[in-house]
Amino acid sequence: MTQWLGLPPLAAANGQQIDNLIGWTHIFMLVLFVGWGGFFLFCLFRFRKGANPVANYTGVKSHTSSYLEIGVAVVEAILLLGFSIPLWAARVDHAPPESEALVVEVTGEQFAWNFHYAGPDGKFGKTDISLIDLQSNPLGLDRNDPNAKDDVTTLNQLYLPVNRPIIVKLRSKDVIHSFGVPQMRVKQDAVPGFTIPIYFVPNVTTAEMRTRLGNPEFQYEIGCAQLCGLGHARMRAFVTVQTADEFQKWLDDQVKEQSATSADPFR
Ligand SMILES: [Cu+2]
To answer: What is the whole-number distance in angstroms between the Cα of residue 75 and the centre of ligand 1?
Structure first.
């Protein structure tokens, strides 16, 4: 129904609501535009100089324009109270329980995205600001913490399983960034000092989307959607949506690889 908007292809189970809201907003705005544009043209004609050689200091007595204004205010109240607030509440309050979802901590920094998975134990290891090394440990993950042994971190590469709720816990190391994945209809600011949860359910794998679009190079992209400094334009990351099996295999490989390298004292 919302094809006419030319939005990026939808790839999240709960994104249709957002599209419907955007669609209805456009329809209401079109009605307003045509209404006010018509009123403007009417005024140009009705009050033209030829028909009104002498200025009229009384002005218009009709209340039509007041009623129109009230009508617009009512429509806007309906949009806000009837659509936007319930939609926002559904997105924020009814997040699936963490036990049914994949939780990923996403940390923005100038100018990259860090992703942190809890690994098979489901527990995130401790992070410590004093352990941060921009090259080898950008999150300051404490590999001596037992919960951190099987943790997986990646830079600018987010891997997700299809058809499973994803809870992203969004953080920032420096300034305000914004996590935006257009196809998932997700956009949320990352604010230093806060951990902000958002959730979505990707329902089209990268491979499926490539066939659907006929573009073998297609990638879901995360763009930073807040101007965050000079390198803002290159603050992109890629999302690879895989089947549950493919994702599990990727995660297992990462766990093996990363726990092996972190156990090496010379690294
Ligand atoms: Cu940014």
So the answer is: 35
CA of 176 to the centre of ligand 1 (A): 7
Interval 93-124: pLDDT, tens: 778 888 899 999 999 999 999 999 998 888 89
Q: How far is the CA of 52 from the centre of ligand 1 (A)?
A: 57
Distance (Å) from CA 15 to ligand 1 centroid? 23
User: With a threshold of 0.70, does the pTM exceed it?
Assistant: yes
Do residues 131 and 140 make contact, with C-beta atoms less than 8 angstroms apart?
Answer: yes
Residue 210: count other Cβ atoms within 10 Å of its Cβ.
15
Residue pair 250/154 in contact (Cβ under 8 Å)? The answer is no
Q: Render pLDDT for 29-74 as a digit per residue (tens, 0 to 9).
A: 899 899 999 999 999 998 888 888 888 788 778 888 899 899 989 9
